[in-house]
Amino acid sequence: MSASNQLDQIDLELLNLIQRRADLVRGLADSGMTFQAGQENVRLDQLQDSAGPKGAGTPEASESMRQVLRHIASHCRRQIETHRIAILGPKYSYSHLAAIKYFGDAAEFTPVANIPAVFDAVHRGDAESGLVPVENSTDGRVVDTLGMFVRRHMQICGEVLLPIHHNLLASGTREQIREVHSKPQALSQCRGWLMSQLPSATLVEVGSTTAAAESAAGDPTIAAVASLPAGRAYGLNVLNENIEDNPDNVTRFAVLGRHETAPTGNDKTSLLFQIEHQPGALATAMTVFRDAELNLTWIESFPSPGSRSEYLFFVELAGHRADPQVAAAIEKLDSMTRRLEVLGSYPVAVLEE
Ligand SMILES: O=C(O)C(=O)C[C@]1(C(=O)O)C=C[C@@H](O)C=C1
């Protein structure tokens, strides 16, 4: 058989296998089994790790195989249910790219105008899941997201780490640029580059990097800082690639949902709490984690709405809320705080390019 016939043969076998997988998923769903979107990630990752060097190859090959498995899984799921995922839009924002990484590209994405609208869509039930940026390695916390966690009770079911590579995109040439549009976080992640390369351009903050690309498409004097897929979607010229000041620029996204996530053995827990406004209160609260020997991976303070001197704290720690020492620490913390919310326990994300 010729090589091209063999390729046809393999592709046919792959299609048949994918159909068999989809039929199996439908059969399981018919018999009452429930599937939580994105939750197959842990199983797929383990499966791929156990395939060893043959399945892994170079890190890049390994990541693209993971993506292939995720896309097949989301394609099969789509045949049994529509799972809507609210994201900061329009399409091709970094939030959209992170959501594809987590849910696979056959999922149904609902782009909304801003971060509060993602929370609202999940809260109202317009979407089953949402995805929001939480922090960036260069720029720190995303204030809109933390503010919404303070205002709305919302469950975190998972997280995604996405390397962020920004690009200068425009419909004209670099000489025509008068303004550079992007989301404040993206402008901040490229501040050094923009100051040295385009010192006379005015920086304009907009709702998302894709909204910036949209404006750039309609006006050659506007450049956008956005993703390459956004540039392609709006037919923009890529004037410069990788303009982020820190080449290891990574944003962490939280997956919002309405279900609790089962322990996997490598989980973290996010908490939000408010303590009495008195000397030593935070130090006392921290002793709970020290005494339980829990490793804190993140802590942020956030002003309490309506009060200038009171703060809420976001803490993330290694472990699942179902682990006895985590559960005991949460119970103890609850007795010494004014407000305590377990935002969720979920698998720790791995960083892949
Ligand atoms: O505007 C986008 O494309 C987003 O998805 C938002 C966002 C953010 O606010 O952090 C996400 C990743 C990057 O850090 C820059 C922008």
Q: Assess the beta-strand content as a share of residues.
A: 25-35%
Number of strands: 15
CATH class of the largest domain: Alpha Beta
Task: Give the H and E element order.
Answer: HHHHEHEHEEHEEEHHEHEHEEEHEEHE
Query: What share of residues is helical?
Result: 40-55%
Mean pLDDT, rounded to whole units?
Answer: 91
What does this protein look like?
The two termini are 37 Å apart. This protein has 353 residues and is an alpha/beta fold. Helices cover 41% and strands 26% of the residues. The strands form three sheets. Strands 1, 2, 3, 4, 5 and 11 form a six-stranded mixed sheet that branches. The protein has a five-stranded mixed sheet with strand order 8-7-9-6-10. 39% of the residues are buried. It folds into four domains: 1-81; 84-163 and 248-259, D-Maltodextrin-Binding Protein, domain 2 (3-Layer(aba) Sandwich), CATH 3.40.190.10; 167-243, D-Maltodextrin-Binding Protein, domain 2; 260-347, Alpha-Beta Plaits (2-Layer Sandwich). The protein contains 13 helices and 15 strands. The structure holds prephenic acid (PRE). Prephenic acid binds at residues 88, 93-95, 133, 136, 142, 164, 183, 185-186, 208-210, 251. Residues 270-347 form the ACT domain. Pathway: Amino-acid biosynthesis; L-phenylalanine biosynthesis; phenylpyruvate from prephenate: step 1/1. Residues 84-258 form the Prephenate dehydratase domain. The record marks 251 as: Essential for prephenate dehydratase activity.
